[in-house]
Amino acid sequence: MHYVKAKGIFTSDYGINLYRGCTHGCIYCDSRSEVYQINHKFEDIEVKENAVELLKKELVKRKPFMIGTGAMTDPYVPIEKRLQHVRKCLKVIYRYGFGFACLTKSDLVLRDLDLLKKINEKSKAVVQITLTTADDDLCKIIEPNVCPTSRRVEVLRKLNENKIPTVVWLCPILPYINDTEENINGILDSCIETNVKGVLNLDMGLSLRKGNREYFYKKLDEHFPGLKERYVEEFADSYFIHSRHNRKLKRILKKRCGENGMLSKPDEIFEYMREFPSKSYQSKLI
Fold this sequence. Notes:
Helices cover 39% and strands 13% of the residues.
């Protein structure tokens, strides 16, 4: 871990990245790609030491909207338990009446359930959870340093009990590893059981670029001997690689989401995530 002093806090779409780099160890992580220009060891997490102050300066002069985090780095990496940067930002977001949406794989999000409930009562809070496999043993291989799928489903259940809306990111789907009907249906069973708002999948596959491709192939050699050669032969240097079952699996997703009242069209889900509610909120001077 190392600190930097940031010049700004918001991305172009009003996201915030409190950390850069990650220790979850997911074998497929696109954030390792060179395009993101992380110029330090990926596991040596960069911490924006002045993030909370920057956020407060921005929010005091703006009308409320939805603030997101987690697109680049999971906000609930283990060091968050000690640093509490996310929790401090949540307090600022609540104070000034903004909405909040995060994307995570970690059960540490439940630590902040009290603040998420307050934000959701005042404006809107949405928690997005990534689920890639219904099999905990496989999860421990492809996402080794974060809580397994069964625990994430418990998190979804707890959030639902507390009326916090949730979205599941059903991705990435790795060809010849988790691209089966059994896996997709298993994940969807959990989504239905926990009453998620929507299930997001752009396509059944994954992205591979310079930086993350090399790491992914190294892990394939470690855990799935011979599969790297199959990837190289079938996909070459393609940026996004599709499962051979892409169309069939997407039909299953669409059908089951439709039958159970869950959003599945990406545009509709993103629109829901961006939409700031019209309900009244309290004074910024709470």
